[in-house]
Amino acid sequence: MKAVCLLSGGLDSATCLAHARRAGFDCYALSFDYGQRHRIELEAARRVAAALGAADHRIAKIDLRVFGHSALTDEIDVPKGRDEAAMNSGIPITYVPARNTIFLSFALAWAEVLEANDIYIGVNALDYSGYPDCRPEFIQAFEQLGNLATKSAVEGRTRIRIRAPLIELSKAEIVLLGLELNVPFELTHSCYDPDASGRPCGACDSCVLRAKGFREAGIADPACA
Amino acid sequence: MKAVCLLSGGLDSATCLAHARRAGFDCYALSFDYGQRHRIELEAARRVAAALGAADHRIAKIDLRVFGHSALTDEIDVPKGRDEAAMNSGIPITYVPARNTIFLSFALAWAEVLEANDIYIGVNALDYSGYPDCRPEFIQAFEQLGNLATKSAVEGRTRIRIRAPLIELSKAEIVLLGLELNVPFELTHSCYDPDASGRPCGACDSCVLRAKGFREAGIADPACA
Lengths: 225, 225
What we know:
2 copies of one chain form a homodimer.
Chain A: E1 2-6, H1 11-22, E2 26-33, H2 40-51, E3 56-61, H3 84-87, H4 99-114, E4 118-120, H5 136-149, H6 151-154, E5 161-163, H7 171-180, H8 205-217
Parallel strand pairs in A: 1-2, 1-4, 2-3, 4-5
């Protein structure tokens, strides 16, 4: 059984990949080089895919900078040192327009080529309440679309399922799940704005959420060792 | 009023763009450099966008060859000299997995940046009965998705509409509509497998359908003059 697994190289997508592996899938990991300022995450994705025994790992090069308008791809500063209240007040500038729609579209293309039914995505509705494309209704709508969009689904050879096993979990619960699944946390990368040597800034939303997750789970983050 | 208009440089998308212009939209034309063997269509798209007065035209570079598996991106031969019965018997090898899903995802991203409600796509369900992502139910599902996927839609600032004005037209009807809208047919390019100088092969499905459309419309194709 094959599954396409979206893999950014962060904590969530690594845990999601480990979840798919435990469910018995041969995992085809898919990452994107989309002009992100934190491209070091692609190195993390390579290491995580290898460590978790992905059957294949591809990096699709797509240029999201053609439209601009996000701190992750533009020369807009990544916000730092925000507390949870600030993070939850509206959609952050680090949101990339339609990013998960684009990522899932590519995953769908690869699923069709592989004749895979299952697509894993590590979205999380709780800690990313500001991102519309991390919500269950978005995931359901994409699943519906996927079953109308491809030759293999229309011909009845596949039945697309978008699996988002982390969608209702808190960051601490994701950490605990990852621990149980032996996710190599030390290989993952979450920071939106690492320094030149790849060290996390410790202050962007992603670093703050990760630190909170490990703290609440009561374990040390090995990536910060 | 802004609209994002998918523009391949072919007859259908050019007519679709002209339709959007007549409806009063400022048109933001979007083409893709996706490793297609008929990249000459991008030159056609540039000329068509200029001739029809698009407000902007961007070409997004995305690599669909990362998954392979289509005669349009692979080194598989493009089928030639097929009659309509052959074309309508199943989905052709020139089908690119999830292509319209991917193209619409990028259009959605740009629509969000522009705060545009409308996305035009020149799909046609009749002459491309073999392509699942040219059917009305696919278009409707994408519209639903679009309204769940973006920050601007969720915040109520936009209401995504996927407009496919050609979807129920025959190729001859598209030619007649294009004529009425003063589409510069001579600038458009439809062939899947042009020679090195860009001349259409005259024998691929796209050339055959185009010739049939002009013949049934009773007018000469100025691109073949």
